[in-house]
Amino acid sequence: xxxxxxxxxxxxxxxxxxxxxxxxxxxxxxxxxxxxxxxxxxxxxxxxxxxxxxxxxxxxxxxxxxxxxxxxxxxxxxxxxxxxxxxxxxxxxxxxxxxxxxxxxxxxxxxxxxxxxxxxxxxxxxxxxxxxxxxxxxxxxxxxxxxxxxxxxxxxxxxxxxxxxxxxxxxxxxxxxxxxxxxxxxxxxxxxxxxxxxxxxxxxxxxxxxxxxxxxxxxxxxxxxxxxxxxxxxxxxxxxxxxxxxxxxxxxxxxxxxxxxxxxxxxxxxxxxxxxxxxxxxxxxxxxxxxxxxxxxxxxxxxxxxxxxxxxxxxxxxxxxxxxxxxxxxxxxxxxxxxxxxxxxxxxxxxxxxxxxxxxxxxxxxxxxxxxxxxxxxxxxxxxxxxxxxxxxxxxxxxxxxxxxxxxxxxxxxxxxxxxxxxxxxx
Amino acid sequence: xxxxxxxxxxxxxxxxxxxxxxxxxxxxxxxxxxxxxxxxxxxxxxxxxxxxxxxxxxxxxxxxxxxxxxxxxxxxxxxxxxxxxxxxxxxxxxxxxxxxxxxxxxxxxxxxxxxxxxxxxxxxxxxxxxxxxxxxxxxxxxxxxxxxxxxxxxxxxxxxxxxxxxxxxxxxxxxxxxxxxxxxxxxxxxxxxxxxxxxxxxxxxxxxxxxxxxxxxxxxxxxxxxxxxxxxxxxxxxxxxxxxxxxxxxxxxxxxxxxxxxxxxxxxxxxxxxxxxxxxxxxxxxxxxxxxxxxxxxxxxxxxxxxxxxxxxxxxxxxxxxxxxxxxxxxxxxxxxxxxxxxxxxxxxxxxxxxxxxxxxxxxxxxxxxxxxxxxxxxxxxxxxxxxxxxxxxxxxxxxxxxxxxxxxxxxxxxxxxxxxxxxxxx
Lengths: 427, 427
What we know:
The structure is a homodimer. Chain A has about 425 residues and is an alpha/beta fold. The first copy, chain A, folds into two domains: about 5-230 and about 405-420, Aldehyde Dehydrogenase, Chain A, domain 1, CATH 3.40.605.10; about 240-385, Aldehyde Dehydrogenase, Chain A, domain 2. Chain A has helices spanning about 5-10, 10-30, 35-50, 55-70, 75-80, 85-100, 140-150, 165-180, 195-200, 215-225, 250-260, 275-295, 300-305, 335-345, 360-370, 385-390; strands at about 105-110, 120-125, 130-135, 155, 185-190, 210-215, 240-245, 270-275, 295-300, 310-315, 325-335, 350-355, 375-380, 395, 405, 415-425. In chain A, helix 7 (about 140-150) packs parallel to helix 8 (about 165-180). At the A-B interface, helix 2, helix 11, helix 15, strand 13 and strand 16 of A face helix 2, helix 11, helix 15, strand 13 and strand 16 of B.
């Protein structure tokens, strides 16, 4: 299956094929590794990261220079920049993954058939994982750690601006793998900035089992369009908080403010507030006051604007927009059904919450809203692998297959059926 | 995302889009249906199939005429042809699915976080399933039943030769859905024979959640190459039976004969026999005698041909070939490790078995062979949803994501996280 890209870049093609073959060979050994071995690799990698903090920072300097030349904006440079605290965070992140139970070789199910066959469903590693991400060096260690813990081999393609930092971090992961007598090829970094390497990864069927894009919409879209390999991905996080007529007002304000404003740039941040029209008159002024004080722009429907003049007029697009910024859309709804319908129509099946003291209404919302994560009386910002207890996450899946919601080590596994017989033949 | 096909066939494009929208609307209702309602639909559909057997047979006559004109070969015509017994089999198949537990709204997991949040993982329907299959009318009722039981909406694209039969069967499923007050759009049959409809299905992202191809290699390959929607699929069933040096001879012969010859055309049929060289001299003559008597052609390596002259010379291709015919490849191996390596290199990750009385050797094989189904002392022909206790199957997945092995109603579900709080906000 040669693509145009391949014929134009035979050198990169050969390089990527070699990386893929090395990853497959490493995966076979990783799949057999004990949990103690995998944990030892992570512990030693964390030590190496601490011991080599200066080297990592020096490499990061080079990346920042390059990023400045490439005119990254301040937010991008901020994400790219490492400091002692962030490096310690990476090391601690690896140690958190050590505390997780081994996600593979678990008996997930067992049953016996009338003919005496005993069937087991057993978790195993997913295989070779291709992770494509942007210029956030911390993803390098997080993604590698989760992949390693689940017995996979990872091929990491970092953003071109973070190549030096990522190389320095991968060197520490290699030190950990070596110390645990595991193959260093279990974590490989694509060594070129050439974008053709991404095209290669997306067509390496037979060598890569799954692609995980972690980054902005343009990256995810490219992967969706080009990949011949199954993907775990997340497109939008257009999350809703719906305040039902039987909500507690103080709770509603506290939860909504946290859901919207704790961090506005994460995918679990609430982008849209729905509120029952029967309580809007009493609730909305308090909500608008808090949002306004916190510097959040409000864009609402006409009904909401009649109640609070600070609310600007929302356009049709607003209901479908993931702002990732201090902006919120506000809509009054007739009842629970309209709220559910709005969320299913305009949401992105990521995370949506209802605030209510009415358990019946809550259950209806939780059941009928077709999202990966649905919440009752909690902030949508809890949509996070760490907050779920997964140790870390490689992303949040809004797809319906394989993994939904936060993707941790357990989600980077698959299973096999193991069948025990004593000579059974089929009739 | 308009493809060439779309612009050339705007009528089919519009038709398929309308089918997709109706399916999505039906899915929302199906997801809320009770198990009793879904079972009632299946029971009434089974009744309708029995009551309308003559109509189905008349429709099948038309298909056979068309198939004869199209010069289908005798095996294809055989698969296309219905009779009273096959129609009763369809009705009974629906009733088997009724006996299965409801695969959705099951609490798969539950845990509490230190902050008091209670997290549940709950099974839900997969959504809208596109099933593309060949001219075997029975797939219509099997696939629809499993989809329906799991609360999904199905878009069925049958082989062009079975269109009349499939329409008659779908009419019975509609009667069942109506009787249970469920939307008939939960089971829709693509009403055209135009192949452009398949191209449409494969690009209906946002309307179809998953594509299940069920048919030969050319269909599966087309789907793999063209689909922009995730797929559950199976490519090859190049299954192995490995006879270890500590096998019981009678069991080895009985199991191998069943694995190869019970039905040669199913994907779980053994295609390759591996045997430890230390026992080949005593085991192979008995195996060759049984195979030869049963009319099975044998193609082996030089070592095997020295032991039994009836074995023809195998070419390199034979090790990678799924015959689906009374032919078997035979290879002597040095030991367990060589057998495992051969299976992982040449197999198709479908189903592979070891025959041995040595549990240690068995465990090593079961663990290291990287296939969806691995077996100890049993016939590979047990690779079947019915034999697993799944009631029926829509296919056997050799992919690594979401569903591996037999795909029954449970594999046509996904999950959501439901989180219960009491006002928690994230720090």
